[in-house]
Amino acid sequence: IFIYVLFVPKIIYNQKKHAFEKKRFYDVNAYMSEMTQEFTSKGTIHKSLIETANTFTKGRMHETLHEAIDTIENSSGSFREAQERALKKIESKYDCEKIRNLHAYLLKSEQLGGNVESEFRIIEKQRKAWATAVEEYHQKLVHNRLEGVLLYGGLLLFCAWFMHAFPENLSIIRLTGIQLLNTVMLALFVVFFVVLDTKLNTSLLKEAIV
Fold it and tell me: In 3D, which of 79, 89, 90, 91 has the Cα closest to residue 46?
Protein backbone atom coordinates (compact mmCIF):
# COMPACT_ATOMS: atom_id res chain seq x y z
CA ILE A 1 0.00 0.00 0.00
CA PHE A 2 2.87 2.36 0.83
CA ILE A 3 4.51 1.79 -2.57
CA TYR A 4 1.19 2.34 -4.39
CA VAL A 5 0.48 5.57 -2.48
CA LEU A 6 4.05 6.71 -3.11
CA PHE A 7 3.50 6.54 -6.88
CA VAL A 8 0.10 8.29 -6.93
CA PRO A 9 1.61 11.78 -7.54
CA LYS A 10 3.69 10.41 -10.42
CA ILE A 11 0.64 8.75 -12.01
CA ILE A 12 -1.38 11.98 -11.68
CA TYR A 13 1.51 13.96 -13.20
CA ASN A 14 1.74 11.50 -16.09
CA GLN A 15 -1.96 11.86 -16.87
CA LYS A 16 -1.64 15.65 -16.98
CA LYS A 17 1.53 15.41 -19.10
CA HIS A 18 -0.19 13.02 -21.53
CA ALA A 19 -3.10 15.46 -21.93
CA PHE A 20 -0.70 18.40 -22.34
CA GLU A 21 1.34 16.72 -25.07
CA LYS A 22 -1.75 15.56 -26.96
CA LYS A 23 -3.25 19.07 -26.79
CA ARG A 24 0.01 20.59 -28.07
CA PHE A 25 0.07 18.15 -30.97
CA TYR A 26 -3.56 18.78 -31.95
CA ASP A 27 -3.06 22.54 -31.66
CA VAL A 28 0.04 22.47 -33.86
CA ASN A 29 -1.67 20.23 -36.38
CA ALA A 30 -4.73 22.51 -36.53
CA TYR A 31 -2.54 25.63 -36.72
CA MET A 32 -0.51 24.34 -39.68
CA SER A 33 -3.63 23.20 -41.52
CA GLU A 34 -5.48 26.48 -41.00
CA MET A 35 -2.43 28.65 -41.69
CA THR A 36 -1.79 26.85 -44.98
CA GLN A 37 -5.38 27.32 -46.12
CA GLU A 38 -5.53 30.95 -45.09
CA PHE A 39 -2.23 31.86 -46.73
CA THR A 40 -3.35 30.21 -49.97
CA SER A 41 -6.37 32.54 -50.08
CA LYS A 42 -5.02 35.67 -48.32
CA GLY A 43 -1.43 35.67 -49.57
CA THR A 44 -0.03 37.46 -46.49
CA ILE A 45 1.27 36.13 -43.18
CA HIS A 46 -0.34 38.90 -41.12
CA LYS A 47 -3.87 38.34 -42.44
CA SER A 48 -3.44 34.59 -42.30
CA LEU A 49 -2.38 34.78 -38.64
CA ILE A 50 -5.45 36.86 -37.77
CA GLU A 51 -7.84 34.41 -39.44
CA THR A 52 -6.05 31.42 -37.94
CA ALA A 53 -6.09 32.96 -34.44
CA ASN A 54 -9.88 33.32 -34.69
CA THR A 55 -10.21 29.53 -34.90
CA PHE A 56 -8.65 29.17 -31.44
CA THR A 57 -11.06 30.64 -28.90
CA LYS A 58 -8.88 29.96 -25.84
CA GLY A 59 -5.80 28.16 -24.62
CA ARG A 60 -2.07 28.37 -25.19
CA MET A 61 -2.24 28.52 -29.00
CA HIS A 62 -4.86 31.29 -28.81
CA GLU A 63 -2.57 33.37 -26.57
CA THR A 64 0.54 32.61 -28.63
CA LEU A 65 -1.03 33.65 -31.93
CA HIS A 66 -2.35 36.91 -30.48
CA GLU A 67 1.12 37.65 -29.10
CA ALA A 68 2.51 37.08 -32.60
CA ILE A 69 -0.12 39.37 -34.14
CA ASP A 70 0.63 42.09 -31.57
CA THR A 71 4.33 41.80 -32.42
CA ILE A 72 3.55 42.57 -36.07
CA GLU A 73 1.03 45.33 -35.44
CA ASN A 74 3.01 47.15 -32.74
CA SER A 75 6.38 47.02 -34.48
CA SER A 76 7.93 50.29 -35.62
CA GLY A 77 10.64 48.73 -37.78
CA SER A 78 10.65 46.62 -40.91
CA PHE A 79 7.33 44.83 -41.50
CA ARG A 80 9.10 41.70 -42.75
CA GLU A 81 11.38 41.58 -39.73
CA ALA A 82 8.34 42.04 -37.48
CA GLN A 83 6.71 39.05 -39.16
CA GLU A 84 9.85 37.00 -38.70
CA ARG A 85 9.91 37.87 -34.98
CA ALA A 86 6.22 37.00 -34.70
CA LEU A 87 6.72 33.58 -36.25
CA LYS A 88 9.75 33.01 -33.99
CA LYS A 89 7.47 33.56 -30.99
CA ILE A 90 5.26 30.72 -32.17
CA GLU A 91 8.28 28.48 -32.81
CA SER A 92 9.65 29.17 -29.31
CA LYS A 93 6.40 27.95 -27.71
CA TYR A 94 6.10 24.89 -29.96
CA ASP A 95 9.45 23.24 -30.66
CA CYS A 96 8.46 21.55 -33.89
CA GLU A 97 10.49 21.18 -37.08
CA LYS A 98 7.31 21.10 -39.17
CA ILE A 99 6.30 24.56 -37.94
CA ARG A 100 9.75 25.98 -38.63
CA ASN A 101 9.67 24.58 -42.17
CA LEU A 102 6.18 25.98 -42.77
CA HIS A 103 7.18 29.43 -41.53
CA ALA A 104 10.29 29.49 -43.71
CA TYR A 105 8.13 28.67 -46.72
CA LEU A 106 5.52 31.29 -45.79
CA LEU A 107 8.16 34.01 -45.57
CA LYS A 108 9.72 32.97 -48.87
CA SER A 109 6.36 32.70 -50.64
CA GLU A 110 5.19 36.12 -49.45
CA GLN A 111 8.44 37.69 -50.58
CA LEU A 112 8.31 36.11 -54.05
CA GLY A 113 4.54 36.42 -54.51
CA GLY A 114 2.68 34.50 -57.20
CA ASN A 115 0.36 31.53 -57.08
CA VAL A 116 1.42 29.07 -54.38
CA GLU A 117 -1.69 26.87 -54.30
CA SER A 118 -0.02 23.81 -55.85
CA GLU A 119 3.00 24.06 -53.54
CA PHE A 120 0.79 24.36 -50.48
CA ARG A 121 -1.19 21.32 -51.52
CA ILE A 122 2.08 19.39 -51.23
CA ILE A 123 2.74 20.92 -47.80
CA GLU A 124 -0.76 19.96 -46.68
CA LYS A 125 -0.22 16.41 -47.89
CA GLN A 126 3.05 16.22 -45.91
CA ARG A 127 1.29 17.57 -42.80
CA LYS A 128 -1.38 14.88 -43.01
CA ALA A 129 1.27 12.18 -43.39
CA TRP A 130 3.13 13.56 -40.36
CA ALA A 131 -0.06 13.74 -38.26
CA THR A 132 -0.93 10.14 -39.14
CA ALA A 133 2.58 8.94 -38.26
CA VAL A 134 2.52 10.73 -34.90
CA GLU A 135 -0.91 9.34 -34.01
CA GLU A 136 0.21 5.82 -34.92
CA TYR A 137 3.36 6.27 -32.82
CA HIS A 138 1.30 7.42 -29.83
CA GLN A 139 -1.14 4.54 -30.20
CA LYS A 140 1.81 2.14 -30.26
CA LEU A 141 3.00 3.50 -26.91
CA VAL A 142 -0.52 3.12 -25.47
CA HIS A 143 -0.74 -0.46 -26.74
CA ASN A 144 2.71 -1.26 -25.30
CA ARG A 145 1.56 -0.02 -21.91
CA LEU A 146 -1.62 -2.08 -22.09
CA GLU A 147 0.22 -5.22 -23.23
CA GLY A 148 2.78 -4.82 -20.47
CA VAL A 149 0.10 -4.45 -17.79
CA LEU A 150 -1.83 -7.45 -19.11
CA LEU A 151 1.34 -9.54 -19.23
CA TYR A 152 2.30 -8.65 -15.66
CA GLY A 153 -1.27 -9.10 -14.43
CA GLY A 154 -1.43 -12.48 -16.14
CA LEU A 155 1.79 -13.49 -14.41
CA LEU A 156 0.35 -12.56 -11.02
CA LEU A 157 -2.84 -14.54 -11.72
CA PHE A 158 -0.82 -17.56 -12.82
CA CYS A 159 1.29 -17.42 -9.65
CA ALA A 160 -1.85 -17.17 -7.52
CA TRP A 161 -3.41 -20.15 -9.29
CA PHE A 162 -0.19 -22.16 -9.06
CA MET A 163 0.12 -21.65 -5.31
CA HIS A 164 -3.51 -22.63 -4.71
CA ALA A 165 -3.07 -25.74 -6.87
CA PHE A 166 -1.00 -27.44 -4.16
CA PRO A 167 -2.84 -29.83 -1.77
CA GLU A 168 -3.60 -28.38 1.66
CA ASN A 169 -0.86 -30.43 3.33
CA LEU A 170 1.72 -29.10 0.81
CA SER A 171 0.50 -25.51 0.71
CA ILE A 172 3.28 -22.93 0.27
CA ILE A 173 1.11 -19.84 0.52
CA ARG A 174 1.84 -19.22 4.19
CA LEU A 175 5.61 -19.63 3.90
CA THR A 176 7.42 -16.41 4.85
CA GLY A 177 9.57 -16.42 1.72
CA ILE A 178 6.55 -16.86 -0.54
CA GLN A 179 4.65 -14.08 1.21
CA LEU A 180 7.62 -11.74 0.81
CA LEU A 181 7.92 -12.68 -2.86
CA ASN A 182 4.21 -12.01 -3.40
CA THR A 183 4.54 -8.62 -1.72
CA VAL A 184 7.53 -7.69 -3.88
CA MET A 185 5.72 -8.76 -7.08
CA LEU A 186 2.63 -6.72 -6.19
CA ALA A 187 4.78 -3.68 -5.34
CA LEU A 188 6.74 -4.01 -8.59
CA PHE A 189 3.49 -4.09 -10.55
CA VAL A 190 2.87 -0.37 -9.97
CA VAL A 191 6.55 0.40 -10.63
CA PHE A 192 6.33 -1.47 -13.93
CA PHE A 193 3.13 0.36 -14.86
CA VAL A 194 4.62 3.78 -14.05
CA VAL A 195 7.71 3.05 -16.19
CA LEU A 196 5.51 2.20 -19.18
CA ASP A 197 3.17 5.11 -18.46
CA THR A 198 6.06 7.59 -18.29
CA LYS A 199 7.09 6.67 -21.84
CA LEU A 200 3.86 8.36 -23.00
CA ASN A 201 5.23 11.68 -21.71
CA THR A 202 7.40 12.11 -24.78
CA SER A 203 6.81 15.16 -26.94
CA LEU A 204 4.64 14.28 -29.92
CA LEU A 205 6.09 17.26 -31.79
CA LYS A 206 9.52 15.66 -31.98
CA GLU A 207 8.64 12.03 -32.67
CA ALA A 208 7.61 10.27 -35.88
CA ILE A 209 8.71 13.13 -38.12
CA VAL A 210 8.18 12.19 -41.75
Answer: 79
